[in-house]
Amino acid sequence: MAGVPDGQALLDEAEKRDLFLRRLDDEGEWFCYHQLFADFLRRRFKCDQPQRIPELHATASSWFADHNMIREAIGHAVVAGDEDRAIELIDRHGVDLVQQAQLSTLQALVATLPPRLVTLSPRLQLFLARAHSILQQPEQARIALNAFEAALEARALPPSEVRDMRVEADVFRALVEVWADRGDGVEELLAECLARPESLPPFVVGTAANVASFLEISRFDFVAARRWQDWATGYHYRCNSFVLTYGLCLAAMAASQQLDMGEAERRLRHAVRIARQSQAPYSHAARVAYALLAELLYERGELSDADRLLEDSGRFGTGGGPPVEFMIARCCAGARIKVALGRHDAARRLLDEGSEVATAVGLSRLGAAVDVERIRLNLGSEDTAHIGSTPVGGIGAEITVQLRDEAEILRLLGTDPDLACERAMAWVKRLEPQGRPRALLQANRLLIAALGAAGRVTEAARLLASVGDRCAELGMVRYLQDGGPEVSALIFATALQRICNRCSRRWFRHLITAFAGESADEQVID
């Protein structure tokens, strides 16, 4: 940077003569002056050659950029007065940071710039909006998107560039909306991006496809949701592990709703493998994959592996979160895992976490799921904070209705079981033509509990055998037990032998283990 041919020799000589200089590595590539001497040299240089200071900062910026030390490169560019270069550095390297899920690093880099510069740059505001939306910081994302529009109006940019930037902004507006469980207008926000994908960055197209998949899942069109992921595969692999991980999770969600559990497991294991090997193994996307695979393994009775993944999934926080299904997996399925392991206090904490997020962000579907889980697990079933009027619209309104009805039906089991049967049967009839296999399985499980509570044991046993066979085919050894004490009692009292006669010994062993624990007596099983 000093422009001298023998710089390395001069540094070596200064170190040898102990002139306030020491090396920082064995190779002698990095040296450090004593702080007081460095301050003296800066003051002397400022007095003797002030005109060279901007030039040296610009040179330093280039050197740091060439060596991938972006924070330092940006800092020197700002001091050199080259604001356009500072923006260009973030523009060039910010995409890589986003694709590596290093979003907090991107935010920190932008924070090093003068506020005036950030305010006036539409590209920087768009980077911030992207980072905030992916980090589930909806209010900050909306502020950045509004600032982006204001900055765009104040700049004379080429029309094609303006159009592309607005398309990208719309994709992240859509992401913010689905994070908040809202779907109105989202399809329109995605339309142009999905209509001309080859003209836009793969990261943006992959994100748009993920949002489109989520919309289709909310409409119960699971085939379309999986089709979007198949279409987006090339874009996912061209951008990053972050978007790909989310895409795999969405495909797994759709498959799980279809009870295609083999495909769901394949997708989730792929997502977890990618997350583990990425530069951000605890990113939001990674933790979503861990939570969803934990839920799947729990249903199969693999409690130890499920619990390890649950711990890796961490907290989602209360400033917003991933789509609600992911948080339900973390909090509700997580509570089931903890109860199965005898850790009831940990289960309560998970449900409290879900309730806290639901209240803070206004996620009625998450709140309803938490309420149902409290009742099923007998962990504070009197908490009715989230029981309220049915939402008029929004993503998952039908699911919220079903969850709230299930909570009320579970409460009726002890007070008016006949009414509970009537309402549970209504849900079965409602779901039968909808093409929602998992939701129908859930409704039938609830009906089994209601029939048992009403003393209609023969009907309950018949339905239990049918549902038990289906669970056996899918390997979902814990699903029936999670229907509550009424279902558990029925299994042992009236239908266990019928199920076992039609299932493999391995399934029988799993079923007994699910109820008796992993220490189930081998003689009893035999």
Task: Outline the structure in words.
This protein is mainly α and 526 residues long. The chain is built from 27 helices and two strands. Strands 1-2 form a two-stranded antiparallel ribbon. β1 and β2 (31-33) form a beta hairpin. α11 (186-195) crosses α12 (202-218) and α14 (241-257) packs parallel to α16. Mean pLDDT is 83; it is low at 381-392 and 518-525.
- Total strands: the figure is 2
The main sheet orders its strands as: 1-2
Poorly predicted runs? 381-392, 518-525
What class, by secondary structure content?
mainly alpha
- What's the SSE pattern? HEEHHHHHHHHHHHHHHHHHHHHHHHHHH
Strand content: under 5%
Would you tell me the overall average pLDDT?
83
- Helix percentage: over 70%
Q: What is the alpha-carbon Rg in Å?
A: 29 Å
Largest sheet composition: 2 strands, antiparallel
